[in-house]
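Recap for those who missed Tuesday's class. We walked through two folding examples back to back. For each one, the amino acid string is listed first and its predicted structure tokens come directly after. Nothing is annotated here on purpose, so try labeling regions yourself before you check the end of the notes.
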Amino acid sequence: MKNNSEANNNNDNSNGVGNNNLVVTLEEPKENYLDLVMLALSTEGYFFLNEETSSFLKSMKTQFLGRKWINGCVSFKNAIKNGSVPEMPELGKPIDGFTPPKLPPVHALEGLIGECGVPFEQQLTETDMNKHRARLLIAQELVEKFVMPLMSEEEKQSLKCGQEIQVTACGSNGIEYQMKFKCWGSNKHVLTLGWNEFRIDNEFKALQDWVTMWVFRHKRTGKLCFGMIARRFPTNQLIRSQKKKKGKEMNK
């Protein structure tokens, strides 16, 4: 960060740059950016960013966005470690009660997300991690509530006819994976094709990882997309929602 000497020598401040203004450049080491921005914000003038600096700071903002949610509730993690599992939230809600950000906190997706649905969460199972099955099963209730509202009538009809839909999935690393979304039988909705590669690259773990999913339309292509980020909890068993447990008790 440095004083804008040209602006200081210019008496015309119509461009918003004056004696008290700072220009942020990439001359400083990136690890000093937070201190530099705090300094800039503490001044009474304006500060300006070149394109590269602006892009880097946006990535930092994305990195910190939702950090509390990503780290998860400590008291909840401790409760699981101690052997007690608190009452589970409604199906699709975060396991620890924290609210995820409205958009996936992935820098590579900034400016590319069009219409976006409400994020939902589900626990990864042993079969989701099975390389031979090569699919992620999404509960029917979750598909109906969170995925279907983002689908076109043509796509819904394709699923009913047993056809697959080409979709794109993106994880926290910003890498895009081409997958297929389809329905097996009458009510088993799955993501296939690139799922094995996706789960391996993201180092997912069965039972311990709870994946939050955002279903959205790509702003440029209009394609149906899935943003997926996992949060890890010390769970070593399959935890069912209270809704399903109550249903099982009623059927006994």
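Example two. Treat it independently of the first, because the proteins are unrelated.
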Amino acid sequence: MTPVKQKIVATSGILTTALVWGLMWYPFRSLNAQGVSVPMASLATYLITIAAGLTLFFKLYRRQFHFEPVLLLLTLLFGWCNFSYTMAVAEGQVMRVLLLFYLSPLWTALLSRLLLHEHLTRRGWAVVGLSLLGCCVFIYRPGLFAGELPLSQRYEWLALSGGMAFALGNVISRKSHGIPVPVKSATVWFGVALIGACSLLKSGELPRMLDIPAESWLVLSILGVVLLCTSVVSQHGLSILPATQAMTLMLMELVFAAASAYLLAGERMSPQEWLGGALIAGASLLSGGMSRPASKPQPTP
């Protein structure tokens, strides 16, 4: 395949991923309305993803997998990231969830400084400043200075914590150079399934998995296969395209989500939310090249 064709395929893969995640709220919200809760849907969907992924890529995982303790942490972080995002979009305003989640570049910048000792570039400081300004504009409400919480709904805290988990997972993943990308990708599948199972055990809903109707299992199976495909094509795209270009394409998720939320759920954002969202999206757009590696100490003669 020529470089031009490779780039077209990679671009299509990233855009497809953005489209899938921009629309993912709708089937989970619909299933929830039909009595298949988000934990039930998450567990079923990702068990199907795991089964399909291990079947298709068994030889690859057999060759590349080797256990490292950090995989457990990545499994929990990436699992919570996806699980909390799905919970949030199933019960809250889609664009509000996405924009709170897209504060992740801010957390990435701070965590890279803290854990990797990387220094922020001018672009990095711009990302921090824009993210903080966008966050302040987005969450401001008249009673904020009277002691009210800036985020009052559970889904808002789920979205915020999901973005933090995503940022911390990415920072730890960058630090774990020896773990192959396909193995890191699989931590998402196992993580969501694990957290979904724990949530169902805690609520006593696990036996209800047997009561999921056949038509719902069909939807869940399609979701599982789609998520597997997006995992593969997005990793392929990220391995070919420059980080800045990939982030620009991924921001199309906001466009797809805004359009689908308006058309399918009648959700609208206020001018204040649009302004805060634009600042947060702008910060994400600048997130490539936020920091530079810590300088290595020079050996003493």
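Answers for example two:
DSSP finds 14 helices and two strands in the chain.
Residues 16 and 230 are 7 Å apart (CA to CA).
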